[in-house]
Design a protein that fits this description.
CATH class of the domain at 1-79 and 159-166 and 190-253: Alpha Beta
Order of helices and strands: EEEHEEHEHHHHEHEHEEHHH
Largest sheet: 6 strands, mixed
Number of strands: 10
Structural class: alpha/beta
Radius of gyration: 18 Å
Distance between the termini: 40 Å
Shape: globular
CATH superfamily of the domain at 1-79 and 159-166 and 190-253: P-loop containing nucleotide triphosphate hydrolases
Helix content: 40-55%
CATH topology of the domain at 1-79 and 159-166 and 190-253: Rossmann fold
CATH architecture of the domain at 1-79 and 159-166 and 190-253: 3-Layer(aba) Sandwich
Number of helices: 11
C-alpha cells in the first residue's frame, strides 16, 4: 500500500531523513516511533505529498507521489485522512463544517449527502449530535475525536495519525487508541501512527518501526520490539536516561 525507498530530506541544513526504507501492507497499522524531532511527522508529510524528497521515492498504491501533477495529487489526498497533532480544527467553523471540510473543498457532494456523511462520521467516534457546536466548546479529547471524524468523512483508504494521544489524560488516550483500532477494523483502512507513546504503540500497531538518526533501525511486531536486542530501541521503549541515544546526544553537544 505504501513504500518509502531510500528517502532523504534536509531542513535548514539539518539532515532529517537519511535513507528511510519502509513497506506498509494494505489493511495494517504501522506505528513509527522515535524521539521528538527525529523526522516522524516529516515522513508523514512526504506520504501525503506536502513535502518532496531531496532523494528517494514514496509510493502509494504503486504511484510515485512526487511525480503526480496537481490534479492527481488532489485525487490521492482524497484517499488519505490525516489526524493532526492537537486536532488542528478551524476555530471559526462549526464542528460539522470542520468534519465536512475535505468534501466541501475537494469534492462535489450534494448537501443532503454531506450532512449524512458528517453525522455518520461523528457517530462513529461517539459524538452524535454535536455538529452545531464550535471547537471552543469541546474538551481536548473531543477535539481529537472530531479530527478523526474529519479524517474518516472522506471515506479514506489510508489514515495518518500524528501524535494522536499527545496532550490528553491516560483514560482519554486509551479511548483514542480504541478508536484507532476500531477504525482499522470497521473501515479496513491502512493506518500509520507516529508517536513516542509506547502504551499506544503496543496497543494499536500490527508493526512498529523505529526512526533514529534519519533511518529505520528496527521493525517488527509489538512483541518483537518489546524483546529487542537492539540497545538503542531498548533504551527508547523503556524510557531509560542512560544508553546509546544519550551518549550520541552528548557527543553532539
Amino acid at each position: 500500500m505504501i513504500e518509502l525507498v531510500d528517502l532523504h530530506k534536509s531542513l535548514a541544513g539539518h539532515k532529517v531523513l537519511n535513507g528511510v526504507d519502509l513497506k506498509i501492507e494494505k489493511g495494517t497499522t504501522c506505528v513509527i516511533i522515535g524521539r521528538s524531532g527525529c523526522g516522524k511527522s516529516v515522513t508523514l508529510k512526504h506520504i501525503v505529498g506536502i513535502m518532496s524528497p531531496d532523494k528517494g521515492k514514496v509510493f502509494v498504491n504503486g504511484e510515485e507521489v512526487s511525480r503526480l501533477d496537481e490534479k492527481a495529487l488532489n485525487a490521492l489526498r482524497l484517499k488519505i485522512g490525516m489526524v493532526f497533532q492537537g486536532g488542528a480544527l478551524f476555530d471559526s467553523m462549526t464542528v460539522g463544517e470542520n468534519v465536512g471540510f475535505g468534501l466541501i473543498e475537494h469534492d462535489h457532494v450534494p448537501a443532503r449527502e454531506l450532512r449524512g456523511r458528517i453525522e455518520s462520521s461523528l457517530a462513529m467516534v461517539g459524538l452524535h449530535g454535536i455538529a452545531n457546536l464550535m471547537p471552543s466548546e469541546l474538551s481536548g479529547g473531543m477535539r481529537k475525536r472530531v479530527a478523526l471524524a474529519r479524517a474518516i468523512c472522506i471515506k479514506p483508504e489510508i489514515i495518518l495519525y500524528d501524535e494522536p494521544t499527545t496532550g490528553v489524560d491516560p483514560i482519554t488516550a486509551d479511548s483514542i487508541n480504541e478508536l484507532i483500532k476500531s477504525m482499522a477494523d470497521k473501515l479496513k483502512v491502512t493506518s500509520i501512527v507516529v508517536t513516542h507513546d509506547m502504551v499506544s504503540a503496543y496497543k494499536v500497531g500490527d508493526k512498529i518501526a523505529m526512526l533514529y538518526l534519519g533511518k529505520i533501525i528496527a521493525e517488527g511486531t509489538p512483541q518483537e520490539i518489546q524483546h529487542t536486542k537492539n540497545p538503542v530501541v531498548h533504551q527508547f521503549i523503556n524510557g531509560l536516561a542512560s544508553g546509546p541515544i544519550t551518549e550520541t546526544l552528548d557527543r553532539y553537544r
